[in-house]
Amino acid sequence: MIFGLIALLQAGCATQRDAATTADMPKPDKTISDQALDQALTQLYRQWQGTPYRWGGTSRQGIDCSAYTQRVYQEALATPLPRTTHGQAKTGYAIDYQSARQGDLVFFHIRPGLRHVGIFLGGQRFMHASSSKGVTVSRLDNPYWQARFWQFRRYF
């Protein structure tokens, strides 16, 4: 029982294992302009805003953080992402905090074995599936997120 709970916590926001690596993942067919990316992210946020958080969830009835980033990347950028936070944190490439731009993924260490992911919007804001608020926009300079920041990764 305790080992099962530990395994669940180590999985992060999702329940499935990832087989894809960066080399396995196709590149998007075309680059997207900043304006088009902003419009796509805004539209997808509005569609999902307030959707409740559900660990392992992938639908509007409930979604977890990595399923949300996976869905947004597929719909906005036609770019596949691994299903789990752990898998997403291993693909793409790391970006310096100062170099982060809209659309990059932002990762957090919540507690040992538990990670969280969101999509950077610029201006210290990111959208994500929050366990307390559902799909929402939060600020990186909020003390909670600031203390847990881990890395940015880029996929496009």
From TrEMBL:
One GO CC term, this protein: membrane
Listed GO biological process terms: proteolysis
Pfam family, one: NLPC_P60
Keywords: Hydrolase, Lipoprotein, Membrane, Palmitate, Plasmid, Protease, Signal, Thiol protease
Membrane association type: Lipid-anchor
GO molecular function: cysteine-type peptidase activity
UniProt cross-references to InterPro entries, sorted A to Z: Murein_DD/LD_carboxypeptidase, NLP_P60_dom, Papain-like_cys_pep_sf
Keyword match Signal: yes
PROSITE patterns: NLPC_P60
Localization (cell): Membrane
Residues annotated as domain NlpC/P60: 30-156
PANTHER family reported for this sequence: MUREIN DD-ENDOPEPTIDASE MEPS/MUREIN LD-CARBOXYPEPTIDASE, MUREIN DD-ENDOPEPTIDASE MEPS_MUREIN LD-CARBOXYPEPTIDASE
Family affiliation: Belongs to the peptidase C40 family.
Protein known as: NlpC/P60 family protein
Source species of the chain: Salinivibrio kushneri
